Amino acid sequence: MKNYQSLHYCHYYRMRQSGETVECTRQECFAPAETPTVDNPFIQRWYYSPDREVAIRLPRNTMGDDTHKANAADLKLQERWTARAAKHGDIEIDKPMSRTDDGEESGFDIPDDADEPVEFLIKKETVTSIRIAVDVLTPDERYLWDELLSDKTKAKIAEECGLSEGAIRKRVKKLARTLLENPALKNYFE
After folding, report:
1. Which of 33, 69, 76, 181 has its CA 20 to 30 A from that of 164?
2. Residue 59: helix, strand or coil by DSSP?
3. DSSP reduced 3-state for 68
4. CB-based burial of residue 131 (10 Å sphere; 0-12 exposed, 13-18 middle, 19+ buried)?
């Protein structure tokens, strides 16, 4: 993988343990990393936007590690596609790429409602902001979040928890407030 710290970005940030980002200088963003310890075994990681808009010094925790790994995978994929295009020329998506063993042509199948690149990046940033906010939920809040994502009704969740449906409604409202007050989501939606 190429050295992304050698590139110049429009903005540099530090992300706090809470997920809140604070603008900083290039030197602060890329300052030497602290040595991992027994108390904090995580190594220093960074997030680099593919469009060279931002570089973020991530916190040394699980959230920072996960964010870095997803970002590195995306950057590596982009590098591979760029190298492939340079080696083989532009790929024509309307022509078959190969033939299967039974002689059928295989190629790209792009649906008509495919997202534009900008829409895709917006969705990806939204998902990242939500992940950051969900990672800091308490176990009870996380359980409620997961149950709501599984499309269970509030009545079903209340029955499983041994609570009233009104109690679950209150907890859902509290969860919504907690998520909307999270700095990662607040920064995203402002």
Report:
1. 181
2. coil
3. helix
4. middle
The strand pairing partners of 155, in sequence order, are none
Sorted by sequence, the CB contacts under 8 Å of residue 80 that are 6+ apart come out as none
CA–CA distances in Å: residue 141 to residues 14, 53, 128, 130, 172: 27, 34, 18, 14, 9
Report the CATH number of the 115-190 domain.
Answer: 1.10.10.10
> What's phi and psi for 160, nearest 5 deg?
-65, -30
Q: Which helix (H) or strand (E) holds 29?
A: helix 26-29
The model's pTM is 0.47
Where do the domains of the chain lie? Answer: 1-90, 115-190
Considering just the CA atoms, what is the radius of gyration of the chain in Å?
A: 22
DSSP state of 6: G
pLDDT per residue over 52-76, tens digit each? Answer: 889 999 999 999 999 999 988 888 8
